Amino acid sequence: MLEIHLILFFMIAAAIIAVEVKDLLSSIIAVGAVGIGLSMAFLVLKAPDLAIMQLVVEILSLIILIRATIRKDLPFSASGRWAFNTGATVVFFAVFLVCAYMALKGLRAFGDPLMRVSQAYLAEGPAKTRALNIVSAITSNFRVIDTLGEGVALFTAIIGILAVARKVGHKKKK
Amino acid sequence: MTIYLLCLALFSVGLYCVLRKRNIIKIIIGIGIMEYAVNLFFALIGYRAQGRSPIFAPDQAIRNMVDPLPQAVVLTSIVLGLSVTLMLVAVAIRIYERYGTFDITKITRLKG
Amino acid sequence: MGTNSEKGMGVIVKTVTKLTLGFILLYGIYITLSGHISPGGGFAGGVIIALSFVHVMLAFGKDAALKRLRPPGLRLVISGAALVFLAMAIIVPQGRVFDSEVIVPLCEAAIVGPGLFVIFVALVLLSKADKDSE
Amino acid sequence: MVPLFMVIPLAAAFIIALTAKLDERVHDACAVTGGFVIAALSIAVCALLGRSGAPGVMTYRIGSLPPPAGIALVIDGLSSFMLVTVNLVGFLVTLYATGYVKCYTDRWKFYSLFFLMLSGINGVLLASDIFNLYVFMEIAAIAAYFLVAFGTEAEELEASFKYAIMGSVASAFILLGIAFLYGATSTLNMADMARVLAASNPARVIQLVSVLFIMGFGLKAALVPFHAWLAYAHSSAPAPVSAMLSGVLIKVLGIYALSRIFFNVFGMDTAIMQILIVIGVLSMAVGAILAFGQSDIKRLFAYSTVSQIGYVAIGLGVATPLAVFGALFHLFNHSIFKSLLFLNAGAIERLRGTRELGKLSGILADEPVTGYATLVSALSISGIPPLGGFWSKAIIIFACIQAGRPALALIAALISILTLVYYFRSLSPVLFGPKAEMTAGARPTLAMNAAMAALAVLVAASAFALLPAIKEVLLNGAIAVLTNGTANNVPLGAIQ
């Protein structure tokens, strides 16, 4: 799986650029590149549903982020104890990655999933639902409550953003 | 194995951004990167070598499909991530309106 | 682009938008309805529908877009779809009474499409969002 | 019956959004009715499950496959106990909110978000699938972020943003943990996962996931050292939202989820117990010390929440049946008295126009309902004998001694005295001081007074939960679920 490695290196590089570049617009574009890389990775991992989803969501969030932040100032200044804080963070990450490495040994090797529960989906999917796309069978029937949850989460975001966007929150006191 | 570690390195880049950056748009970007990494991790776990995407064709039998469950899970997780991002952007715009800055160290009307 | 959002863009963009709008909308609906046999599904289709609305708004300006897509109407669509969705999600276990593979994505697209457009209006035009979102 | 706990609040939220153009009294009525119905329903379910001879679980299947591939909503003893706590507090807070939110524009958005949050919380309690739990947790959390910012003033936005950042990082940790668990077990159903983990026992994976979950859920529960967001969010939010956050949300999203996973999926081991105890002691001590210096009444209550959550964490960490009983009882007590305190703080802020402790006085004489409600809940939280707060703390302390940890018992007792001191010091001038000639703000409405009075009665009566008849119904099932550990999981075949 060379291609997935390459895509991941590309994503990490783009992510580092997004984090470190000074200009906010470039940063948002770089994060868009990470998202596109993710979409490609999903395609390589044989998840076309996810690739489509990631692509459209990425476009939407890019538009919104750019329109939201365009022509706003971005004062950058190095904080005190920069070296110490960064060092501490990096050490934390090193510990995290080492622990994760130990834990990863307990997982199965890449490309060889256990698929205990998923066998049931593959075996019964087309029979119990009318869907040939098993992912769609899962989201619209077997685990429909997840889909309800995502609908509700978006509904919450809609109502909430309408609420936060109110010009006047408190009524005038008289 | 290395592939999982690379994915977790991406997660760390996002976390670094959240912990160390002062611009709130950068912090939102960092959270987005963390979500990307976790979604990718899920998808990696479900991958099967030489597998096919989990879509049956009407007339042929397909044996070695990749695991469909992580894909369904990531589908939901992407939406949850989008909702959180939209929420953060909305509040960030209002904060800019009220404080006139994106610098988190200057947004301190609440004292700890 | 701030001032443009009032009047919209040039005549070329407007013409192209008129031509492509229908196709984008159709594609969104296609993605929604064919999610059970090919990649796609309700959310992706809904986002594409929302993007077609956004497209109109960027090209023709806020006022022209909001004349056709009024937020109160959108709110009714969103809440109604959410109610149907809720009923569907809870009733699904009782066998194959409904075609949940079609209705669930439709409900989702009906929440997502108008919903994301409303969010876009509210976020991008936050300063004027009050009367837009009623 | 089981899915109604999600259907009713969601339907209420959607209908309120659908009828946004109608008169606001319609929304008030809709909200109060919805809250009342689920509160009554939760008590009914708890009574049904608590009967002797009842099977102890209620299940509802969703989707056309049986678990573990399909989804089931499950109410067992612990869930039904938490449902009663959540929905009782939720109903009374809704009642209070009908009076309180009059000062905000667009009240329907408040109610809609409030019920979305409630449905998320109930969903967490019903979930038997770890990813469902995550999804509902996110719904509750997103609604809570927005509710904190509902007033759209600068402080509220800032608090909401900081809370949302912390919450999103926590969610990312939790989802990463779930991904590791899925990789190790290839299932998402919690009962099934417990079985697979017990059979294969991938120790390293469990260790890493435990750390990720303690960070994630600990952040949601505001345990020290992850408590930074709490004081911002709780002090800036509208009073009903502070009450829900402090009384219910952090317990369900943090403590309930943590104990559900650690007790019933991983099986409690000594290392985790030690970590919980250490975090609990830190939370108790740091919360109490920080509460000491506060001059803002809501921040005082917020830090006191951190301190009291520490008691619950200790009880769960000691993990003997008695300690678990104490922890759950304290959780219940804290839900009612802390939400009451926040509601009172909201009423006082309305009345006097400030939250500065130094500028408040004479509440008892001026506004007796608010005053006596504050008095009762402050007495209960500081552990004055006949009230519920005393008994729950006493049970936790005895359980520590019984488990051979006298030092822990000593610390818990000392912090309890400290709590008494800072509550007495801060609140006695507020309640008993001379009636100040301040510009009188809005007095609490009838609905607000009714809600505060009802909660005060609950606080005063909560010690009756120790009577065997009530304890049997309310608490015994919950204690059994936690102390039976992984053996307690509902057999998958039994799910209808």
Supply Rg of chain B.
19 Å
Q: Helix coverage percent of residues of chain A?
A: over 70%
- Architecture of chain B in CATH? Orthogonal Bundle
Report the span from N to C terminus of chain B.
Answer: 43 Å
CATH class category name of chain B: Mainly Alpha
Count of discrete structural domains of chain B: 1
Average per-residue pLDDT of chain B, rounded, comes to: 87
SSE string of chain A:
HHHHHHH
Low-pLDDT windows of residues of chain B: none
Q: Layout of helices and strands, plus pairs?
A:
The complex is a heterotetramer of chains A (174), B (112), C (134) and D (496).
Chain A: H1 2-20, H2 24-44, H3 48-69, H4 82-106, H5 118-128, H6 134-142, H7 144-164
Helix pairs in contact in A: 1-2, 2-3, 5-6, 6-7
Chain B: H1 2-20, H2 24-45, H3 68-99
Helix pairs in contact in B: 1-2, 2-3
Chain D: H1 4-18, H2 24-50, E1 58-62, E2 71-75, H3 77-100, H4 107-126, H5 130-148, H6 154-185, H7 190-200, H8 203-221, H9 228-236, H10 239-266, H11 270-292, H12 297-318, H13 321-352, H14 363-366, H15 368-381, H16 388-402, H17 406-432, H18 446-461, H19 468-483
Antiparallel strand pairs in D: 1-2
